[in-house]
Amino acid sequence: MHSDKTIPATSNIGSYEERAASFDWSVAEAELGWSEGDPINIGAVCTDRICEQGLGAKLALLWEDSHGKERKYTFDELRVATNKYARYLQDIGVSPQDRVCVFMDRIPDFYISFLGILKLGGIAQPLFSAFGPESLVVRLQDADTKVALTTMRHVRKLRKIRQDLPNLETIVVVDCPDVSKLKEGEVAFSLDAAEPVEEFEAYPAWRETPSVLHYTSGTTGKPKGALHVHGSVIQQYISAKWVLDLGPDDVYWCTADPGWVTGTSYGIIGAWANGVTQMIYDGGFSSEAWYKLIAKYGVTIWYSAPTAIRLLMRDGKELAWKHDLSSLRHLISVGEPLNAEAVIWSEETFGKPFYDSYWQTETGSIIITNYPGMDVRPGSMGKPFPGIEAKVVDLQTHEPIDEPGRVGLIAIKPFWPSIMRGYWNNTPGYFSKFDRGWYLTGDRSSIDADGYFWFVGRDDDVINTGGHLVGPFEIESALLEHDAVAESAAVGTPDKVNMEVVKAFITLKPGFEPSDDLELEIMNFVRKRLSPLAMPQVIEFATTLPKTRSGKIMRRVLRAQEWGEPIGDISTLEND
Amino acid sequence: MSEDMKEMVLEYVREEYVDEDDEDTELDYDTPLISGGLVDSFSMVSLKVFLEKKYHIQIPDAKATPEAFDSVNKIVALVKEYQD
Question: Which of A80, A95, A240, A363 would bridge A270 by S-S if both were Cys, CB 3.0 to 4.6 A apart?
Answer without folding.
Answer: A240
